[in-house]
Amino acid sequence: MESRVVGVLGAGQLGRMFVEAASRLNVQVRLLDAGQSAPAKQICFVPSASNPAQSEHVDGSFADPEKIKQLAEKVDVLTIEIEHVDARQLQAVLDAGIVKEVHPLPATIALIQDKYAQKKHLIAHGLPVADFVSVGSESALPKDPAAAAKEQLEGVAAAGRSFGFPLMLKSRTQAYDGKGNFVVKEGGKAIEGIEALGNGTRGLYAEKWAPFVKEVAVMVVRSSTGEVRAYPAVETVHRDNICHTVIAPLRYGKDATVGQRAREIAEKAVATFGGAGVFGVELFLMEDGELLINEIAPRPHNSGHYTIEAAETSQYENHLRAILGLPLGGTALKVPATCMVNILGLADLDKDKDAILKTMAPAVASLTVPGATVHLYGKVGCRKGRKMGHITVVAQSDAELHARMEPILHALETAIEAAQNGSSLPKALLPEGAREAAQASSSSSFSSSAQQTLDSLSPITPTQPSSLDFKHPHPLVGIIMGSDSDLPVMLPAAQHLKRFNVPFELTIVSAHRTPDRMKAYARSAASRGLRCIIAGAGGAAHLPGMVAAQTVLPVVGVPVKGSTLDGVDSLHSIVQMPRGIPVATVAINNSTNAGLLAIRILAAADERYAAMMQRYMDDMEEEVLGKVDRLSQQGWDYVVKK
Amino acid sequence: MESRVVGVLGAGQLGRMFVEAASRLNVQVRLLDAGQSAPAKQICFVPSASNPAQSEHVDGSFADPEKIKQLAEKVDVLTIEIEHVDARQLQAVLDAGIVKEVHPLPATIALIQDKYAQKKHLIAHGLPVADFVSVGSESALPKDPAAAAKEQLEGVAAAGRSFGFPLMLKSRTQAYDGKGNFVVKEGGKAIEGIEALGNGTRGLYAEKWAPFVKEVAVMVVRSSTGEVRAYPAVETVHRDNICHTVIAPLRYGKDATVGQRAREIAEKAVATFGGAGVFGVELFLMEDGELLINEIAPRPHNSGHYTIEAAETSQYENHLRAILGLPLGGTALKVPATCMVNILGLADLDKDKDAILKTMAPAVASLTVPGATVHLYGKVGCRKGRKMGHITVVAQSDAELHARMEPILHALETAIEAAQNGSSLPKALLPEGAREAAQASSSSSFSSSAQQTLDSLSPITPTQPSSLDFKHPHPLVGIIMGSDSDLPVMLPAAQHLKRFNVPFELTIVSAHRTPDRMKAYARSAASRGLRCIIAGAGGAAHLPGMVAAQTVLPVVGVPVKGSTLDGVDSLHSIVQMPRGIPVATVAINNSTNAGLLAIRILAAADERYAAMMQRYMDDMEEEVLGKVDRLSQQGWDYVVKK
């Protein structure tokens, strides 16, 4: 379908996943990397036509102009796996007509390499970044380091006067995974930071301290003609400045617009750059909901690995499509929730002979987790902090996602501890432990039954943490009522949700006494991951309708019977909503049915809840048929005798 | 994580997808295949340590005992990509201790190779198959072909007396993709069939004609200790005896239990075989709901390709896990609906120079389809009927799936026609056509807005086919009412579903006058893919509650106002359901709210409906605020004047 050959500068894990996407579309790839058995080369060996002992890849540094030229001669389109490449050389092979296209444009790569220039570019395009200022001269590579360092010292002092301390001192170039950053806690520490950041050999800038509440990332694919498509906004969690986990979709209860705003900012930012391909936009979310762009990577990114299993088209395939000028693929999530955990080297192999085993512990643990996929990059040996692989988990809800992550994160913590203490791992976290467990768990002989097959559907995890915990951290259903006096009526809803393992929360929200709380609750519900709200109310009974007016979720209303009018007042107040805003009303005082209706709403999109509801209905039928038997055996007066 | 090396007999597309799964887990694979650049070898070149010009794979036939031995010497575990291998030789290398494990067991492979023995095995284990009988001697390889052919002729006549004609005459061995089968339409055609099937050189058997309504397949993964896990049942559609499309989940409105029963039969069947790995079980679904096993493949299967994008763990990874004794991965669908279309060669390259372009037309079309992933196998050249690749499409509903498939299937039909006529393809179906379209569609300059970003979510397809078609083929919502006299009240529900692009059906179901129809409707609703039922009723108003009693889906009840009691009778009849069976009741005569509630129920699990509902609510607010303005500008009597 596609005869053009793509060249990539770099053949690490990003290149490996790119090669995987290219193989699926049968697109030929040639790689430039110093490692003869670099991760990407392992799954893409192309024997040279002239000498089959040689591959068609180029062994060498992607900083070497001669090697870049060699690669360019073999391919139609050049792209990069890492932005720390010689952009001038890429421009040179393009200008010389050695290669037809380079994506992203060399000018874009150069702009992004210089983080100070990147920030100036963003601000010139009206995009939000933290306040920043050049420290010392505006040169990225000062000619006289001693003089530059002196100038920089004055620069930090000046920045401190504007921004206060702490402030971030940053190297303009060669900065990634936290390298090139220094937190200057007070004016006196400036010299330390300058020394750490090249002591005048590199240009620096200072950034106002941004006390973010979350780190957010958005992958964006851009066609060569400027079409941009954002993937969903995700939350990234860093540890020691390296990406640890990525969670999608982003949840932020305080402000339902954050995810959408992040995507808009990211698309707007990527639209300003030239050339095609995927870009990773990292942002800070501030307490007040403000979003600031931290930095942009002009390539597939660690925060987009999840797209392989969880999005319509992966970031790697979309990068390929973009640089080839093919139509872009869908960027929507195809699953309700997903999380990625990096597998980082936990120790150096020369210091700890079990370094690899310890590093792989979370991967071993994930083999028993439904919805988990392990990616190992085929890196040789093990070094502390090195990216060795990652795990992606998909789930049908946030609650299920977190429950599935739990054993993986637990294995990781155990392994980190073992690496720190030099102790050995528990057997269950070793590959042979996993094999033995697999064999033990399945050694019971086969019995085919509806029950067994039903259970072979992934079990729904988790259950409510404690017997009737009112606040699951990732609820699917919210039960609210105007007053604790309604609790006896509303409790059966909670008990039924509990019985069906539905994560829920239960709290008091009063329409008349806490209108602000009601508004906040209703408006944040969908963005917090809730899928249904059960609201109980008596008398004038405004709560269900007023909540329904401020959320897109289905709201189930329970009319609570008061001391007068037998609950008919509540019923009519809840059910007789005006056209436009529905409330799903159940019988007076019948919160059991409200709970069951919420479960049916979940069952509409999750066959496991549907199967559980079917079993519940079958049990009811059986119970009544039992009474039929009893009546025929013991006579009509058994009820009276009981 | 895993140091054992896996050997595979065969390196075609199944091997290629297996290698992809192995690479992700960094498991080393060695392949045996006659093709030096067979599909799997292309993405798994392992240079030989002794001579880098050679690969560690084995070039040769997987029927060659010497080559099997060579491969066995290189690996720890042997498996197969195709069952037409020399099972005795596999047993020999196992017995000689050259390799530690072979999966599935050679005895299983041998059993499955002989389809008559396979059927006898299944029937001995109480599994359902079509009636069959040996034709002629029970030998799989008769010694005297002339005598055997004569005996077979008598055998067919005898089978005809038992089963009637037409009947299926089948070769016991070397049968796949329809090869080895012959339909004997009448007794006189028996000799033709015997000639077509080896004329006495192969053993034959006859099978009673099975006039199935659907073909069904279930992939099952089996651990070496006998744990079995079925994937969902799927519908397979064959064309010219070759798999054309696979659709999951299976839908069969007449009998909601079919999918579950198919899985149970498949698990039970696979449990009877020895050794680990993935098995494909093909079944016939008969008019009366009976399921008959047609045949079983002891390996990953064309009908399981969809698992790569649509299941928690792909069949390829699960095959790998099974043969290595690792814990099995989840087999549940992670998306609501999926379809796979095979890309088969449409012409021979030596007869039609555009054979490849025509064959690739559906792949080109799929580049513009959200949720579509193309797999090309890297086969050289093009031959009619050859499996060149496949396309998997995922979607959030059956309706969306079929809408997404539409352009792909249309491209396929266009290309088939072009191949048959020797005409050329329309430009839009050529790769450069796709590129030009991509560039044209995105040449409008970028504008960031909530609107645009919202639309960059995959658009919800399809709309209701005609303006108010009452019978969408893949509805998500069913609107029912007891009589056409309720239609004026219920129509706004349909209009609102239409406005939100929700596929629905509308029909008459009366609790009192068509109780059987009501039962059939309610019980089949979930298995037909419906997610919500809206039921309108007046007076005694039993329909919503009686439907709710026979489905697990959420049922929305609309009380219809009769000539007496102002609709309060209907309201109370619908809302006051006993504990256990909820009906989501809306206001009297307010089917608008029933439609909107159904959309909210869909929105709970699909953010696109949620976004549309939010926009609808924003529009309502704006409309009222417009009236506020008008009131303040034109005075309080503008309503009266209007």
TrEMBL record, chains A, B:
GO molecular function, one term: phosphoribosylaminoimidazole carboxylase activity
Cited Gene3D superfamilies: 3.40.50.1970, 3.40.50.20, ATP-grasp fold, A domain, ATP-grasp fold, B domain
ATP-grasp domain segment(s): 119-324
Nucleus found in the keyword field: no
Pfam family, one: ATP-grasp
Span list, region Disordered: 432-468
One record GO biological process: 'de novo' IMP biosynthetic process
Family of this protein: In the C-terminal section; belongs to the AIR carboxylase family. Class I subfamily.
Protein name, UniProt field: Phosphoribosylaminoimidazole carboxylase
Organism: Jaminaea rosea
Organism classification: Eukaryota, Fungi, Dikarya, Basidiomycota, Ustilaginomycotina
